Amino acid sequence: DAGVTQSPTHLIKTRGQQVTLRCSPKSGHDTVSWYQQALGQGPQFIFQYYEEEERQRGNFPDRFSGHQFPNYSSELNVNALLLGDSALYLCASSLGAGTGYMLTEQFFGPGTRLTVL
Amino acid sequence: GESVGLHLPTLSVQEGDNSIINCAYSNSASDYFIWYKQESGKGPQFIIDIRSNMDKRQGQRVTVLLNKTVKHLSLQIAATQPGDSAVYFCAEVWGNTPLVFGKGTRLSVIA
Questions:
Q1: Shortest CA distance to B61 belongs to which of B43, B44, B39, B83?
Q2: Is the CB of residue B10 less than 8 Å away from at least one CB of chain A?
Q3: CB within 8 Å: A45 and B6
């Protein structure tokens, strides 16, 4: 079992550009959550996808959008990048968001380090 | 590897000693708490959890204590090992809301 995988590992972009990050959940998991972790901070929840729909969203602007595919993998898109978007982006997978209980044990991937210049 | 916490509070302990990492959580309505360990270059890893109807829970070498009166959570690691060196985060949940992480503490084990 490969666990949660994310690509790419590192990415460098310039202000105003757009970026797409990818996540494959742990085998058997159907729910993907995305987090932003700034240096020296804890992860902050961006949004969660289940059944190809955004189920919950944190306090992030519309520049942050996502998608979940039928195979449960997910993408995070960020448009019009700002310097402040530089962070480690974490994907976490879990099972059963559709039960109405947001939190079952979440397994995190290693993250994608995004640097905006 | 990734450096996830350059400016975090740091706890340094001697190998074999016990470690206590503290966390003040924000919401008195939180009903579920989790401790995560994050090593350099990796995502957070679940260590132990506790629900608000408990004040203590033990795992293998780890114990979590919850004091709801003062909104305080602690993680005790017995016989700390070099492999325990990492950044530790507490996270809280209330109802169906997403995880809210604290700022984290870096644990440095001195061999």
A1: B83
A2: no
A3: no
